[in-house]
Amino acid sequence: MTEKNFVLKGDLCWSDESRSIQTISDGYLVCIDGKSAGVFPSLPECYAGLRLVDYSPYLIIPGLVDLHIHAPQFAFRGLGMDLQLLDWLERRAFPEEGKYANLEYTRKAYGLFVEHIRRGPSTRLVIYATVHSEATLLLMEMLEKSGLVTMVGKINMDRNSPDYLREESAALSLAATEKWLKGCNFKNTFPILTPRFIPSCSDELMRGLAGIQKKFGLPVQSHLSENQQEVEWVGKLCPQSAGYGAAYRDYDLFGGSVPTIMAHCVWSDKEEIALMAERQVFLAHCPQSNTNLSSGIAPVRRFLDAGVPAGLGSDIAGGVHDSIFRTMADTVQVSKLRQTLLKTAEKPIKLEEAFYLGTAGGGSFFGKCGSFTAGNDFDVLVMDDRNLAAPFELSIQDRLDRVVYLSDERNIRAKYVKGNILF
Predict the structure, then answer these.
(1) Which of 1, 86, 114, 357 is least enclosed, having the fewest CB within 10 Å?
(2) What is the spatial distance between Cα 163 and Cα 172, in angstroms, rounded to a whole number?
(3) Hey, CA dihedral for 290, 293, 295, 297, is it positive or negative?
(4) Percent of residues, the chain, with pLDDT higher than 70
């Protein structure tokens, strides 16, 4: 049985609901039954008998959270980056996803994906699979063995997609979804309903998915307002709705009693942002993908100021790098560009806020995780940043900045999920 009560010692750095950075030098982080019991500058007497793991002088931070990643696209990351969104889908994403009808190929491709993310900085991920039920269950089985905590969606799409991926009808798509759900019997790998986006899902399918959501009480993920051409397309497909987000709401798949993540939201207007705030729909901000596919720069400051819950997504393979450290850095960079190019009064995103989004912000979609606050799940990264040394003294927050901008999986010394050590 895995030990769940112990203490880590090192330089602690985390964020809480205030989006500020908290630090303790040479401090103690206590794990009790797989949850944080808090952080302490000196170890309380009541914990003195617990096993102590001394990681001094390493940096100890919460595990990172990826709210938007496409597992089948991992195989072709870094390819086709000269294309824009809809062309990229037709020429790169859809052909690759079609291969997952073959379980032999699926096992090989998903094996590479799961091992890669297991070694990376993310401890929790929200993942898109494909339309193939068996392949999606195989992915979930692999993820369950990895020790990570994930949500995985079998994609639904019955229109405006290639013949080899398009499900034959809404009825068959819904039946396949219910059959898939009956096979989802995992401890740390959970199903999430995944209509790819409104252009690829008929009215009948969207209404049917809303029925499945109510029957099983599932969360939902999809794409929203990523590309101007896409937004215009949805306006023609759903003329009765007041906008793209409103169309999801009209299908009963947009927050409120339905936990929902919407990726991108680059072209969300003030009405859509207000609707997301009202219904507490999560934004999954994917800055690298939005840059690579020329979608634009999401107005993240507007979302945060409006009270929209938010986190970060790597969006492999629209994004090339799966590390949420890189996504944090990109979040800061593109927000500065947005202010400069559009000459807006919106303040750029600070590193402290980007770190919050990639930990506690995104983690809140899973419940209490992404921070060291007492009661949170014990998801932890231990970072050996000695190779990022400087000829002058660095504060803990300085070191965090350098880890965000300069580190990769080679700097990870240890990784814990719910108190279990992965390596």
Answers:
(1) 1
(2) 15
(3) positive
(4) 100
Sign of CA dihedral 126, 127, 133, 138: negative
Q: What is the DSSP letter of 347?
A: P
Residue-wise pLDDT tens digits, 327-377: 999 999 999 999 999 999 999 999 999 999 999 999 999 999 999 999 999
Which amino acid, 28? Y
At residue 36, φ and ψ (nearest 5 deg) are -70, 135
Q: Report which of 65, 194, 205, 54 is spatially closest to residue 132, judged by C-alpha positions.
A: 194
Q: Has residue 388 got a pLDDT over 60?
A: yes
**What is the rounded CA–CA span in Å between residue 358 and residue 325?**
8
What letter does residue 72 receive in the DSSP assignment?
G
**Average pLDDT, stretch 67-89?**
94
Q: Is residue 115 very low, low, confident or very high in pLDDT (cuts 50, 70, 90)?
A: very high
Give the H/E segment covering residue 15: strand 6-15
- Let me know how many helices (H) and strands (E) the chain has, helices first: 15, 17
Q: What is the pLDDT of residue 2?
A: 65
Checking if the pLDDT of 1 tops 70, the result is no
Contacts of residue 288, defined as CB under 8 A and 6 or more positions apart, other chains included, come to 314, 315, 318, 319, 320, 321, 326, 327, 330
> What length does the chain have?
423
Beta strand extents in 271-364 (DSSP E only): 282-285, 310-312
| Nearest partner of 173 among 197, 136, 202, 198, judged by Cα | 202
